[in-house]
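Problem 12. The chain below contains 269 residues. Write out its predicted structure in token notation.
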Amino acid sequence: MTESKFTLFVGDVVDKVLTQSKEWLEFAHKSLNKKQYKVSDTPLSYRKINYLDEVGALKSERKQNKGWRKFSFKELVYLSIVKELRYYGRSNESIRDFFEEFFKKEKCPTNSADIAMLISFSGISVNVVFDNQGNTGFYSVPMFQALHSKTKSFLSINLNEIMSSVWMQIKNVDLPYKDSLSIITSIVEDFELDTKETELLAIIRNKDYKQIEVRRVNDDRWVVKASASSDTDISRLKELIEKKDFGSVTVQKKDGKIMYVKIEDTYKL
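Solution.
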């Protein structure tokens, strides 16, 4: 077995799960691991499942291999992930490592895989990420972008889609969740500008202004003074001033000649 690292990084939502009572976590763990489903509920054939058993990537609890094999919901999810890993040519050894970590027993009433699945059930987008060093982790989309934005290569599997397909198979019900686009949209919405902020941004983007001063008068009112230097003909100053609600004009002369005109616009937002 190669050395591997199994990590749970789904952000602060983990705390919301772990702060549940020990009894609740134990109940959730038992529910995810209760063996009640048939081979026909899995995405693999009986032959392929037996092969995984032979290579140590699945364990049978049948006595002397007699009777029908039963699967837990967690095993159905695991087998669906394995099916995806096979598409990408992952070796028996890497899948066996993943199996041992996925079902690893921990001191906590439940383990990392269980927590990730519970978070996915709550509608949070979670990805299972495999790197080329044998490490595996569960990440929310923003958390993965924050921690691995410079990672050269990785394999990412959408845990929500995996669980949704399994749930549809056994319950004929979809599992809704916020996909990556919805998450990004919600983040953008958090930064939506109101009317005053939009007007201020337009002033700041005006390349004619060389200096901008913003002063908040109170919670609902801003005063913005934006200055620009110009070689405008003095004959046009009246025309420029009449177009503005608030403002001032400074004319600098040297040796009787107008050197430049400083126009300061005042905006009350």
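Discussion. The longest strand covers residues 257-268. Students who got a different answer should revisit the alignment rule from Section 12.3.
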